[in-house]
Each structure stands twice: as structure tokens, then as C-alpha cells.
Amino acid sequence: MAELLGEEELRILASLEKGLTVKSIARAAGLPYSRVLRRLEELSGRFVLRLLPRFGELGLVPTATLSRVDAGPPPFTTLRIRAGGVEEYRVHIGLVPAPYLERFSRDAAGEVALRGLELAYWSPLSASQRSVDLGDERLLALPEEQKPAGRAPDRVDLALLSYKIGHPFMKLSEAYLRAMSSGGWLPEVSRQALAYHYRRHVKPRLVGLRAYPLDPDEPLQLVYLEGWRAPAAARAASVLLPGFIFALIDRGRALVLAQLDSRQRIELYRVVRGLRVGMPLGELLAEDVEAYQLRLWEAEERRSWTYTWTGVRVKKPFFP
To answer: Residue 13: inside a domain, yes or no?
Structure first.
């Protein structure tokens, strides 16, 4: 799917990281606003577009656990996957406040737990990239430890983020109205105040936009990588494999989610062998996927996080 992109579409997708609005994306791509808007509407059928915050500044840590025990989704779960291979696993992926990481893993009966010290997404380079230098120092660098913020943002900021993350071009007023109508107390706020909150508190915490291909008719593949070069293997996969979606990268381990054809699977195994990375669970195929949207503001109390279930089932999988 990602391999069939035209030059103009690739320019637009490559420009997502440089802008948060259609206007700024058009400027970075060097294309007219109307054409970029039309192309983004066309691409939305094949790609998921989302905002990427600096989660650490929100006090949140992208997290994944894998277990052979069938446990229910703990608070802050965004994806619960029943995946099969040689054995069956339950995979929980979430955005978890730092003080509750151990509790999340315990509640998910996690046998393997990863923190998202680094997140890798599909890259437009994968449409044309044919090789990667597996000895490149930047590729082999260890992900950096980060200390998450101790305080949670206020409720208005979290309400805007909860909807803008998955709907990056949604108007602020619409995002806040959806939050108010979905449950949990929120104050009445004017449009001017919403714009102020977004400009002063939300926008500075955003890295930019990301996109990833997602075919609802194809199963998700999950690959757990282990070894000190596991981060490098996940990074290489993101720029080599058009079917790559997302990876959670920790020190010495990584979890890759993708939809790969046979040729791309051969390339993935070539990278894994070249870097001498382990795949102790083999390849897992998602047999059932539960996706949740987090109403983050409902877990905030006096600028602190509470361990509270705020998830609402949605149709489209969300990757942190």
C-alpha cells in the first residue's frame, strides 16, 4: 500500500514532521494549500494521521507488556491484542503515568515489559530506500533515558490533547465539545481561552505530525526484538519496510508492529540476522484487536495522575 505512492504524495507525507497545520505542510512541501488539502483527504483512507506529543512532558510513558496470561486491560491501555504464534500472547500497549508503570505491568500480568524511550514510525523513505548501513553509529545509539514530568497538565489541555492526537486537523472548539459531551467534568471555556491553552500549553509539547499505513483487511504482525542492538533493528525496519507501522524502543528490546508482505519479511529477517538480534517469541499475528481512546482529563486530579480507567472503545487502532 505504501509502495504505491506518487512523488507528490511522498512530498506531503515527508513534510508532516515540519508542520502542524495544512498551511505549514503545504509551505514545507512547496505545494498549493488546496492541493495538499485534497491529497491529505485522499491519503486518510490509506494512512492514519496523528499528532505526536513529547509524552514525557505530560508525565506519560508509552508502554507495552506481553503475557501468556489472559488479563483484562489495565487503566491507560490504548491497544489490547490477542496474538498467536507458536504460543498465544496478550499484548497491552498504553500511555501510562510514570508512577504507575509497575502497577500497569502487574495488572496486565506482563512477562515482558517495555518502555517507549523512543518511538519509531513509518518513514516515507521506505518507499524508495533499498539498504541501510547497519554499522552506522546513529543507528546503533542507545535510546536515552528520560525523566517524565512530575505533574499532569490541567484538564483543558488534556481534553484538547485527547482528541487532537488522533484528529490533528480538528478545530479546537470541536475537540473540546466532544470531550465535554463524552463524560467527566470540564469547565466552560471560551474559544479565545481554548486557543490560549493550545498555543501556550499544548503546542510547545508537540513534536509534529506522523503518518502510518494501516490496512484494515490485513492482520497486524508483532515482532519482539531482544539484544542491545534491538533498537537499531527497529530503526532500520522503519526506513526499509513500507509495511512498517510503529515500534516501541527500550534499552535492549523493541516491539515492532507492521503489515509486511513476504518480500518485506525477508528483509526484516536479514536486518535481524545482520545485527544479531534475538526474536525469542517468533512472529506473532494479531487475532483480535481492541482499541481504546483515552479520556486523559478524567485521570487528572489537582495536577496529579490517578490510576483510573478512562478508555472508550474505538474502531481504529491507536499507536502511541
So the answer is: yes
